[in-house]
Amino acid sequence: MNRQIKVASVILAAALVLGACAKSNDKSNNEQPATAVQTQQNESASADNSAIREGTLKVQEETKKLQEAIEKQDTDEVKRLSKSINDAWLAFENSVRQTFPLEYTEVEKYEMPIFSASAYDKIDFAALKVTAEKLQGALENLLNAKQTTGNTSELLAKAVANYKLYVEEQAEQLAIQTKVFVEAVKAGDFEKAKLEYVKARVFFENIEPIAESFGDLDPRIDARLADVEDESEWTGFHRIEKALWLDKSLVGMDQYADQLVKDTEELRDKIKSIELEPTAMVAGAMELLNEAAISKITGEEEIYSHTDLVDFAANVDGSKNVYLAIIPALNEKNPGLADQLDKQFQLLEQTLSKHQTNGLFVTYDKLTTEQIREISDQISQLSNLMSQTASIL
């Protein structure tokens, strides 16, 4: 071998050795970051869980103070603590939504009504007491929760099952409250009938998309005069609404009152056997919000009583329960959308709460055009966000 070839061979050998070393170093460098990433993820998860525990304990403490204020019927303190609880919850709710989606749903269900109380002129202490007790139970479950190990489809199935329980509960309360309303109608007690009418409407509007799936049952319960060709065949809530607020006479209303009880009880019984699917639930929520933003916003729904804001608030609450049910899928495929929906629901709920006096919504005819437009725009935006969830289910 001549000198040039020998030198070249040495250089080539050195290059091969250096290349092998480089590959070895590359492999080592690649392995180290992977280990570091895993360690970082574990540390991050541990930090999140620690923050969740600390946050939960703080909300529990504030809720205990709220319960004491409720017992004393201290309105100012209740309002202050309601806001304090919400502030504490907002500080860590995103971590809860990602780590414990089912427990998050339960806390959110009771925390938001408590926060809403901070804007009320008049506090319903009895109702708030029950809600605070349920919030404490949900917080205790969160405190003892173990990180979810099921896959998204399993979690979604459990969440939908929880939504089914919500729908059944609302249907049961609708049947009960309708009986109270009907008793007042048949007794000729106008003032009580008007009050109970509003209460019953909340439970129906919460689950209206479900009611619409049962053929002519929804029209029998909820048809407006403009929806029927023959007024003699018109039945349901709005038939009696007209008698109470426009005709100011309940003569002949007994037959419609009795039929309304039968129809709401039929709805309650049918809902027990209904099978719910996430996509259909979202479609129903979107349809409800679109209807609220486009047609109901004109005041056509409660044309005689002008209690439309009650309907809007119930529609939003019903749609929010659909959103809560699909959080497992949002966590996996679009957590950013979950953040947007959460904020938009809060914004709309706060906007609606501004239009209350003594704990009751003002009548719709008291709103200005600008106020109506604000509500319509926010409902439309919420509907648009909900529509984006359809693609991930």
Q: Could you explain the architecture of this structure?
A:
It is a single chain. It contains 16 helices and two strands. The protein is an all-alpha fold and 393 residues long. The protein folds into two domains: 49-149, Four Helix Bundle (Hemerythrin (Met), subunit A) (Up-down Bundle); 152-393, A middle domain of Talin 1 (Up-down Bundle), CATH 1.20.1420.20. Helix 6 runs antiparallel to helix 7 (190-206). Strand 1 and strand 2 form a beta hairpin. It starts with a helix and ends with a helix. It has a two-stranded antiparallel ribbon. It has helices spanning 3-72, 75-90, 93-99, 101-116, 125-143, 152-186, 190-206, 208-211, 217-222, 237-247, 254-271, 278-294, 308-325, 327-333, 335-353, 369-389, and strands at residues 356-357, 360-361. It comes from Cohnella terricola.
List keywords for this structure.
393 residues, EfeM/EfeO_iron_uptake, two-stranded antiparallel sheet, Four Helix Bundle (Hemerythrin (Met), subunit A), 16 helices, A middle domain of Talin 1, globular, disordered N terminus, single chain, mainly alpha
List the helices and strands and how they pair.
Layout: H1 3-72, H2 75-90, H3 93-99, H4 101-116, H5 125-143, H6 152-186, H7 190-206, H8 208-211, H9 217-222, H10 237-247, H11 254-271, H12 278-294, H13 308-325, H14 327-333, H15 335-353, E1 356-357, E2 360-361, H16 369-389
Antiparallel strand pairs: 1-2
Helix pairs in contact: 1-2, 1-3, 1-5, 2-4, 3-4, 4-5, 6-7, 6-11, 6-13, 6-14, 7-10, 7-13, 12-13, 12-16, 13-15, 14-15, 15-16
